[in-house]
Design goal:
Layout lengths: L2 H37 L1 H9 L4 H15 L9 H18 L3 H18 L8 H11 L4 H15 L5 H20 L34
Helix pairs in contact: 1-2, 2-3, 3-6, 4-5, 5-7, 5-8, 7-8
Length: 213
């Protein structure tokens, strides 16, 4: 084999390797952008949970998409929607006198309405949460917070204000699940003047100071 032919072959091999590396970086960059857009704040939480290891966080999120991305949520029947909304409104009112019971009910309600929409059963919290994070990434942290508050509240380790904030955060996801993206009718009878279109941060549980249960 002549020296000229060897040089040509080396150049070809190097060119193939360079193109391959470029395409690989481009694919990784595309996946990075897609995951970050899809998961929003949940992407940043995953990175933090993996101590800043972006690659590990993206592998976890990509696995969630692979498992649950094709899930097609079912619509709720009107009567079913009204029943869930009524239970949530009752839980909000109950918070004033029994915050732990109200937060536990909110946790159950999110799990139940998610199950009714076709997400994994609430008895498998981690799997249900993963599926919800794929389809409701911007509000799924509310479910995490109310679930943790419920578990901590069982041991008396959660302050009333922390429970209130967790329930406020969970309401945004609840409204998305119940309303399927439409305007929600969730409101307490004691707060009819408050917005009921997903403005969960304006909701104050009631104007009276809540008591610990």
């Amino acid at each position: 084999m002549s020296t000229g032919l060897i040089i040509v072959l080396i150049v070809i091999v190097v060119a193939v390797l360079v193109v391959g590396a470029f395409l690989a970086r481009r694919a990784r960059g595309s996946q990075h952008g897609n995951l970050k857009r899809r998961f929003g704040p949940e992407y940043d939480r995953a990175v933090a949970r993996h101590d800043g290891d972006t690659a590990a966080a993206e592998r976890e999120l990509a696995e969630r998409v692979e498992r649950h991305g094709s899930l097609q949520p079912k619509a709720l029947e009107p009567a079913e929607r009204e029943r869930f909304e009524g239970r949530w409104a009752a839980a909000q009112e109950r918070f004033v006198d029994s915050p732990r019971e109200a937060v536990a009910e909110a946790d159950r309600l999110v799990a139940e309405v998610a199950g009714a929409r076709g997400f994994p059963d609430g008895a498998q919290y981690e799997e249900q949460f993963s599926a919800l994070s794929v389809h409701h990434a911007h509000h799924v942290d509310g479910y995490r917070r109310v679930h943790l508050a419920t578990r901590a509240g069982e041991d008396g380790g959660t302050a009333t204000e922390e429970m209130r904030e967790s329930m406020v955060a969970a309401r945004a996801l609840f409204e998305e699940l119940v309303g399927d993206g439409s305007r929600s009718r969730v409101a307490t009878r004691g707060d009819r003047h408050e917005p009921t279109t997903g403005s969960s941060h304006s909701w104050s549980m009631n104007k009276r100071q809540p008591k610990e249960s």
